[in-house]
Amino acid sequence: MRKRLYEIIEAANAADQLTFANLDLASVVYDVIIISAVLLSIFPLALKQEPEIFEVIDKGCAGIFIVDYLLRLSTADFKYGKRTLSSFLRYPFSFMAIVDLLSILPSLSLISNPFSMFRAFRLLRAFRIFKVFRYSTTMRMLMRVFRESRRALFAVFSLAVGYILISALAIFSVEGDTFDNFFEAVYWATVSLTTMGYGDIYPVTILGRAVTMLSSVVGIAIVALPSGIITAGYIREVNKTMGPDEPQLEALSTPNLQNPAPPRGKTQVLEPEQTERRTTR
């Protein structure tokens, strides 16, 4: 019984979605219900005044999300392939389980008055859009890329934090009159890192402007690092999903102009002098 529930609530894989092979009608209906509930529940965020009908819809959507969370928790052992208690303890701390929980909390104030403390978290309804990622092959692929590249991304994040602190200390020491406190210097360094440049805080001395120019150049280099890491990881994931007969994607590299590699599927024809040279070696 629980195995059948897991098959229904689990999203279809990429091959089944593209070829419609082995699609479970009950699973498709369940996915459509969840996606429709997500879209209906976040629609009021685009309105200044929320009609009363949407409160009723929000209650219904919250009930659907609670049932979905409990079903996924009760079948966590099938998800992780381990029929042990650790599977049920591990699932609530997974990324999608946290998203599911954050999707439920904003609606608890509508279901029961004791949960009125959660009214301040009604903006968390925006997190419900992340529930749709479970049914997107591309988003699942990107999540695997982030998971496998987490060490490299954490190293870049640590470098960015160090850059922000060093830049903030440097600009705060030379522009003491411009920045009232160190937090404003950190804010300026963060904006410089992302090359946004709002213009609300800027240095006025020559030394401060020199620090700004150096900070902007370094910031561009740091911002470019995650893009290369994510792109390389995405190419690896795409190549994993391709069949053996399909062309593989390759990362851009500097070509060897002196000895270019022959095209795939073609043999390189050697000149007589090259053949004699290789034979003597």
Task: Write a structural description.
- By secondary structure, this protein is mainly α.
- The chain has 2 domains: 2-135; 150-241, Helix Hairpins (Orthogonal Bundle).
- 62% of the residues lie in helices and 0% in strands.
- It has helices at residues 2-9, 14-19, 25-42, 52-74, 76-80, 85-90, 95-104, 108-111, 137-148, 150-174, 182-193, 206-241, 272-280.
- α3 (25-42) packs across α4, α9 (137-148) packs across α12 and α10 (150-174) packs antiparallel against α12.
- The termini are far apart.
- Mean pLDDT is 76; it is low at 14-20, 252-258, 265-272 and 274-279.
What are the SSEs and their pairings?
Elements: H1 2-9, H2 14-19, H3 25-42, H4 52-74, H5 76-80, H6 85-90, H7 95-104, H8 108-111, H9 137-148, H10 150-174, H11 182-193, H12 206-241, H13 272-280
Salient structural properties:
Helix Hairpins, 281 residues, 13 helices
| Number of distinct beta strands | 0
Counting DSSP H or I runs of 4 or more residues, the number of helices is: 13
Determine the N-to-C terminus distance: 70 Å
Low-confidence stretches: 14-20, 252-258, 265-272, 274-279
Taken together, the total number of domains comes to: 2
Order of helices and strands: HHHHHHHHHHHHH
Biggest sheet character: none
Q: Brief overview, please?
A:
The chain is mainly alpha-helical and 281 residues long. 62% of the residues lie in helices and 0% in strands.
